[in-house]
């Protein structure tokens, strides 16, 4: 099989694969809540398909190269730009559309110079490869997580993008060797050989990595929805219970003091009745914000009832926990405004230490919150807006 036949087969395969990946990503965008980055990546693969189509036409009708090649460069540069923009969209970073458009247009103008001055320049593919490599680097930087460990799908996508960037640089080097060594036999075949051998697996790997990343993001979102309260963002009853069991088991193993706390909004029903359920929802969010800000990073907070919240303070005695609850209680009572009008709100707290013994973590947790609930009841009986420690 000659190079042209192999080139035609590879190009046809790439056209088919690019359309399949573009369709798969478009379906993912439509089915997974319309994440913007899925649409950007879908359009990128669609434009990759356009690039391959141009190449097929040029191979069949070489005379059209002078007309189509400058236009084709748009389809060469735009996919890399869209991949970078999509990665930044996924990371909730500013897409910088204007900056990316300016960079793409600049690369397009530089890359099209050989067609304005035939025979004097030969850097079009080198410019395209270098530009795509830079865009892939931008995408890798955006996918690298900030403040947390990377998930396996993120590492896989980063690896796929890095391989793609290395492939582009190999193409740039091969093209440079070809341009500077035309008198040396076989150098002109280096570019085509790399293209034929490496393009398809690199291309497919990146498409599959993108789809895997979207699936992983969806799974993470579903896990979050399963254990977090959708209104306030803190743990729900199930999520809090699972995290609290792990904390108690770890605390017993490391001999750390752990304290259970319960908070309940005072007269919450009257807030809903007087100001409406929107004000009630905002009050719940406000309380959660105060609780979260008043606790340390390793402490737990969850919404375990309509207006009831549970907390677990790690490496903290009952007295220390009560002091923390008092600070939070005072912060809550300082005031809350809804649409500019003050809506007074207070909360009552109950505190109880987790007693480590021979029982299971489940039972220890149950006993501690049972005592904390009794302490909360005493706070209510004594006039509300106060903190009580279990006797």
From TrEMBL:
Catalytic reaction(s) noted: 2 GTP = 3',3'-c-di-GMP + 2 diphosphate
Annotated transmembrane regions: 6-29, 41-60, 66-87, 99-117, 123-143, 155-174, 194-215
Keywords carried by this UniProt record: Membrane, Transmembrane, Transmembrane helix
One Pfam family named in its UniProt record: GGDEF
Source taxon at top rank: Bacteria
EC number, as in UniProt: 2.7.7.65
InterPro entries assigned to the protein according to its UniProt record, in alphabetical order: Diguanylate_Cyclase, GGDEF_dom, Nucleotide_cyclase, Rev_trsase/Diguanyl_cyclase
Residue span, GGDEF domain: 256-391
UniProt xrefs under CDD domains: GGDEF
Family annotation (PROSITE patterns): GGDEF (PS50887)
Protein name: diguanylate cyclase
């Amino acid at each position: 099989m000659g190079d042209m036949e192999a080139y035609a087969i590879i190009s046809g395969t790439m056209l088919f694969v690019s359309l399949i990946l573009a369709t798969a990503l478009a379906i993912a965008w439509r089915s997974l809540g319309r994440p913007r980055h899925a649409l950007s990546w879908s359009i990128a693969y669609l434009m990759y398909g356009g690039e391959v189509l141009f190449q097929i036409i040029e191979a069949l009708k070489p005379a059209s190269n002078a007309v189509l090649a400058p236009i084709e460069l748009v389809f060469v540069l735009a996919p890399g730009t869209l991949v970078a923009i999509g990665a930044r969209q996924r990371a909730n970073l500013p897409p910088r559309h204007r900056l990316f458009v300016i960079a793409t247009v600049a690369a397009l103008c530089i890359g099209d110079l050989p067609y304005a001055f035939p025979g004097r320049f030969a850097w079009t593919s080198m410019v395209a490869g270098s530009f795509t490599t830079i865009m892939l680097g931008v995408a890798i930087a955006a996918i690298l997580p900030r403040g947390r460990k990377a998930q396996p799908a993120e590492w896989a996508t980063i690896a796929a993008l890095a391989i793609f960037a290395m492939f582009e640089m190999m193409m740039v080097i091969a093209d440079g060797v070809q341009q500077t060594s035309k008198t040396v036999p076989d150098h002109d075949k280096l570019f085509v050989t790399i293209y034929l051998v490496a393009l398809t697996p690199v291309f497919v790997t990146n498409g599959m990595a993108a789809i895997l990343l979207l699936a992983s993001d969806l799974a993470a979102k579903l896990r979050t929805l399963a254990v977090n309260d959708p209104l306030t963002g803190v743990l729900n009853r199930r999520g809090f219970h699972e995290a609290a069991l792990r904390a108690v088991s770890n605390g017993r193993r490391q001999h750390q003091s752990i304290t259970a706390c319960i908070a309940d909004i005072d007269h919450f029903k009257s807030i809903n009745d007087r100001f409406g359920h929107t004000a009630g929802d905002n009050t719940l969010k406000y309380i959660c914000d105060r609780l979260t800000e008043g606790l340390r990073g390793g402490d737990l907070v969850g919404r375990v009832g309509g207006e009831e919240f549970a907390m677990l303070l790690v490496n903290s005695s009952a007295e220390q926990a009560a002091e923390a609850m008092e600070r939070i209680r005072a912060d809550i009572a300082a005031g809350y405004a809804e649409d500019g009008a003050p809506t007074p709100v207070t909360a009552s707290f109950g505190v109880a230490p987790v007693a480590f013994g021979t029982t299971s973590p489940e039972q220890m947790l149950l006993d501690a919150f049972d005592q904390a609930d009794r302490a909360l009841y005493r706070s209510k009986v004594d006039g509300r807006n106060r903190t009580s420690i279990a006797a």
